[in-house]
């Protein structure tokens, strides 16, 4: 929000009764999230409502009213975003314009690479190949980069200073993660002697990214016109 806009906006709405004030704050937050192409951060929403507004409670009330709708507001990638509910994913895929709805598909090696980057970042291509037990080619990393789920990070302090890869905010957004802290814990998987750590990483990310789930297109981001992006 611009400084001029913030100065003009009456955030506190102190002239309104409590119920009307809360309703106005709900509509402001919903409008801002609906119009945004990316998740809207808490700080941004806080600039639209009074200091007395509890944003988590406000979003909960909005979602309560959306219970009968095919979409909801979800916290992803550090902000709130409208998402189509899982049960409507197949319907959206039936639309030609929405055929690319939901997360992209990944090959086995792409999945291994993405899993390893998510948990081990920053990590170099050589380290990824060692973790995966397969050569992780530049083409694999290039495709993941083209999908926006990884990006080059700092160069590793190794001979030749290779690029180390990290995941992106888009990774969190696509897979409906609020932050990397929402990735499944690996402790139990690491204690499972029947699995290697790498298998555990892959299985854990499979679980949260629902890549092998037929209903895995849950929480598809919605664009302003209600069609997922």
Automatic annotation (TrEMBL):
Name the keywords, alphabetized. Answer: Cell cycle, Cell division, Chromosome partition, Cytoplasm, Plasmid
- Segments spanning the bilayer are none
Q: Which Gene3D superfamilies match?
A: Winged helix-like DNA-binding domain superfamily/Winged helix DNA-binding domain (1.10.10.10)
Q: Which residues form a coiled coil?
A: none
Source taxon at top rank: Bacteria
Q: Which InterPro entries match?
A: ScpB_csome_segregation, WH-like_DNA-bd_sf, WH_DNA-bd_sf
UniProt cross-references to SUPFAM superfamilies, sorted A to Z: Winged helix' DNA-binding domain
According to its UniProt entry, the protein's GO biological process terms are: cell division; chromosome separation
Q: What's one Pfam family here?
A: SMC_ScpB
| Record-given protein name | SMC-Scp complex subunit ScpB
Organism the protein comes from:
Methylocystis parvus
């Amino acid at each position: 929000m611009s400084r001029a806009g913030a100065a003009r906006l009456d955030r506190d709405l102190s002239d309104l009764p409590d119920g009307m004030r809360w309703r106005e704050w709900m509509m402001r937050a919903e409008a801002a999230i609906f119009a945004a192409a990316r998740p809207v951060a808490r700080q941004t929403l806080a600039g639209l409502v009074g200091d007395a507004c509890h944003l988590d409670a406000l979003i909960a009330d909005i979602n309560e009213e959306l219970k009968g709708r095919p979409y909801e507001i979800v916290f992803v990638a550090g902000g709130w975003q409208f998402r189509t509910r899982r049960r409507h994913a197949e319907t959206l895929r039936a639309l030609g314009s929405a055929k690319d709805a939901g997360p992209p598909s990944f090959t086995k090696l792409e999945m291994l690479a993405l899993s390893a980057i998510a948990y081990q970042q920053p990590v170099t291509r050589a380290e990824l190949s060692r973790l995966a037990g397969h050569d992780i080619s530049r083409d694999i990393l290039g495709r993941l980069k083209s999908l926006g789920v990884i990006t080059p990070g700092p160069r590793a302090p190794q001979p030749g200073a290779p690029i180390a890869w990290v995941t992106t905010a888009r990774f969190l957004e696509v897979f409906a993660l609020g932050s990397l802290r929402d990735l499944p814990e690996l402790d139990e998987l690491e204690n499972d002697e029947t699995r290697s750590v790498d298998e555990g990483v892959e299985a854990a990310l499979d679980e949260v990214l629902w890549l092998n789930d037929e209903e895995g297109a849950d929480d598809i981001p919605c664009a302003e016109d209600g069609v997922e992006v």
